[in-house]
Amino acid sequence: MRKTVVMVLVVALLAAVLRFTPVSPVRAAVGAVVQIAIGSTKATINSKQVVLDQPPIIENGRTLVPFRFIGDAIGAKIGWDSKKKEVSYVFGDMNIVLTIGSTTAIVNGKKTTLDVAPKILSGRTMVPVRFISEALGAKVDWDGKTRMVTITLGGKVAQAVTVRITGWGGTDTTIVEGLINEVVNPKLAGTGIKVDYEPVENDYQKVLLNELSAGTAPDLFYVDVNWAEPLMAAGELEPLDNYLVKSTVLKKDDIIPSLLSGFTYNGKVYGIPKDFNTLSLIYNKDLFNIAGVPYPNENDTWNDLEPNLSDSPNFSRVFL
């Protein structure tokens, strides 16, 4: 188990990162063409292949696709209300709200009826692609032979891309918002990219995990090293290696290896450590004397200390 206490917060490096990489692997540009196939997790945006976390399905003659994918592809801001089980899209002057299991949608405050209700499938929220796409100004074509849906994005989608980031609330909120407003967004001026910060005040880990499960998590977020590995193993995080290679500001070799290891999985880097904390060890010399175990010293690592404690028959249980 890794003992280094480090955490990821990409916002401090966001301006540099966005200078050399697209903000999202599924974000479409103006005039782009998005293609998805029924039953396949492979999709394309302007002929560039992306991978869906849930393949599109047909229900009652209508195609359902992952909620977040279609929102990101068109460039809409998405939202999820777990209490009301509502998903939402905000795009320019359009505001669309759908409820899981309901065929009633709200478009700019007016009710309209869907042919098929949104549903949750394998932990992912699925929505009718034609309704969402056309409501947001895109053209949708269906090829029955190839079972392919083609979404053509026209002039209406020519809007700024919004990058959503999140982290702990509290006193950090003012600091992070200051960084974004005074450093990040000014550096992005003229690029069509805008950054929004969405702080979480209570139980951050639970909120983030729920959003990841629902497909509504932000683009960039803060992760503690102690629960980063399950997210990396589950494929919830995007590898940063290619971005670091392209960067003229930050390289992998610029980061302390011992800190970077906490966010490395199967040889790929999934997070950038923002800091580290010094841990202190307080121990009872009398117990160490009884056990015949040497005292820890400033040169010891956790790997040095662990066998001294676990291998001693006189230590039945040790709390650190």
Verbal overview:
The protein folds into 2 domains: 6-23 and 158-276, D-Maltodextrin-Binding Protein, domain 2; 33-157, 2-Layer Sandwich (Copper Amine Oxidase, Chain A, domain 1). The two termini are 14 Å apart. It is 24% helix and 29% strand. With 320 residues, it is α+β, with helices and mostly antiparallel strands. It has a 5-stranded antiparallel β-sheet, covered by helices on one side. The chain is elongated and about 75 Å long. The model is unreliable at 1-30 (pLDDT under 50). It has helices at 14-17, 67-74, 129-135, 172-187, 204-214, 228-233, 241-246, 257-260, 285-291, 302-310; strands at 6-8, 33-37, 42-45, 48-51, 57-59, 62-66, 77-81, 86-91, 94-99, 104-107, 110-113, 119-121, 124-128, 138-143, 148-153, 161-166, 193-197, 220-221, 223-224, 264-265, 268-269, 273-276.
